[in-house]
Amino acid sequence: MKYIIPAGVVLLTVVAMVAYILFFPLHPYKDFVELVEQIESADLAETAYRIVEIAEILEEPPETQESQESQESQESPEPQEPPETLKSQESQEPPEHDEITAMLNAMTLREKIGQLIIVSMPNISRAHTLIEDYNIGGFIFFGADITTISELQQLTADLQAAADIPLFIAVDEEGGRVSRVGRLFPEDIGSALSMAEDGRQNVYESYATIGERLALLGFNMNFAPVADIWTNPSNTVIGDRAFGTEPAEVAEMVVAALDGLHSAGIFSVLKHFPGHGDTYEDSHDYLAVYRHDRTRFNEVEAVPFLAGLQANATGIMVGHIATPLITGDDLPAVFSEYLLTEVIRNEWQFDGLIITDALDMRGLTDNFSAEEILLNTFLAGADILLMPPNPEQAIETLAQAYESGTIPTELFDDRLNASVERILRVKNNS
Questions:
Q1: Backbone angles phi, psi at 80, to 5 degrees
Q2: Is residue 322 within 8 Å of residue 290, measured between CB atoms?
Q3: What pLDDT score was predicted for residue 97?
Q4: How big is the chain by its Cα radius of gyration, in Å?
Q5: Which residues does 15 contact at the CB level (< 8 Å), separation at least 6?
Q6: CB atoms within 10 A of CB 29
Q7: Rounded Cα gap, residues 330 and 336, in angstroms
Q8: Confidence (pLDDT) at 282
Q9: Contact in structure between 188 and 269 (CB atoms under 8 Å)
């Protein structure tokens, strides 16, 4: 049987084919067709992404696609690379970075080193000399420095007014038995352990009160909260300064304490990394020893510190604690590039301040010279060197190590600039 196709049908077919060819780019499912063709030559990973794209195209109503294509064609008639200026803008640092870079470039070697140093509060005259001649980074106050509310307010304001770069004005204010300013106020704040007994909200409120008091007096940094876990009942140096005996519980309370301090605009510093709660020695008098390996550290002592860093702690204080089963030596953690740089910086991705515990403590000074202490803590990765016995000499020791080549120039520059940049970034956001 022969089939006869009417001439009209043939004509219509030809017209339809021509229209399809001419208007194919507007076809609502052209993306689908193109993607199917591309899949034939794509590798496995690319194919997975293409399948997702196909699913999105099929789920999208044709009219939506048409309107999107129409809008795209109006905005950009021809596909093109973004201008170089736009590309560079996407990767540019914020204006704050430019300001800090300019400050860094304007500072001398000794001015930069001065920013690394926080000293115990001296007499007023020497304090002004340290600010004006050494560009000192800040001061820490102890009980003997605490007078009256009005006198403290005047003193801290005068110190800040004398400095070209804002000072860290710090204190240890934990509540309980470590309280420097508590006696100036009518209501006592209990120990961390007693705070935690009443729950997270109580810890938050207690530390918010601490923060408000410090801000009122002109302090901007608190060496608190304690992130140690009181796992050794014989440990008296920590004891009730810890929030508890279990990692998860302590971590929760540490975060609450940080939130309280931050609500008052106070810089916070976790202490005493890698953990002082399961040592027998008091590092004020002896080099303490942490007698566990990295696995135990990860599962216990590290938990509150990590939680605190993730909750935006300003800094972390490293103690004079040897960790032989982690580092393979009997040196204090504060000398350990592995703990400070590899663990805190690289593994934990923390770019805030790494601060030493006081460098005048006998756990260090009975075992190492002043030069060993300064160079080892600096090279390990500490940003702030807290309370070197002689701050002027400390600055000269580090400067001479650079100028004499004791520390290679490039290494010294990289370390120094990285630390000063972090310090300026924190101060700039105060």
A1: -150, 160
A2: yes
A3: 75
A4: 31
A5: none
A6: 15
A7: 10
A8: 78
A9: no
Q: Per residue in 33-45, is it b (16+ CB within 10 Å) or e — as a string?
A: eebeeeeeeeeee
Could you report the per-residue pLDDT of 332-374, keeping only the tens digit for each? 999 999 999 999 999 999 999 999 999 999 999 999 999 999 9
**Which has the closest alpha carbon to 247: 291, 304, 316, 198?**
304
Strand partners, 64: none
Tokens of 139: 């001061």
DSSP helix, strand, coil percent of the chain (3-state; round to 5): 55, 10, 35
List the single range of 78-82, 106-110, 200-204, 265-269 with lowest mean pLDDT. 78-82
Burial 206-230 (b: 16+ CB within 10 A, else e): bbbbbbbbbeebbbbbbbbbbbbbb
Rounded to the nearest 5°, which phi and psi values hold at 335? -95, -5
Q: What is the mean pLDDT of residues 206-216?
A: 98
**CATH entry, 97-428, from 3.50.50.60, 3.30.70.20, 3.20.20.300, 3.30.70.260:** 3.20.20.300
Reading across the β-sheet that carries 353-356, which strands appear in turn? Answer: 353-356, 315-318, 267-273, 221-222, 168-171, 138-141, 117-120, 385-386
pLDDT tens for 369-399 read 999 999 999 999 999 999 999 999 999 999 9
- Identity of the residue numbered 58: L
The sign one gets for the Cα dihedral 327, 329, 330, 332 is negative
Show me where the domains of the chain are located: 7-76, 97-428
Select from 222, 165, 162 the least CA-distant residue to 428: 165
Average pLDDT in the 92-96 region? 55
* Contact yes or no for 324/330 (Cβ under 8 A): yes
Q: Which residues are catalytic?
A: 284, 357
The average pLDDT across 232-239 equals 92
Distance CA 131, CA 111 (A): 10
Q: Are the beta carbons of 240 and 232 closer than 8 angstroms?
A: no
- Residue 286: the pLDDT is 81
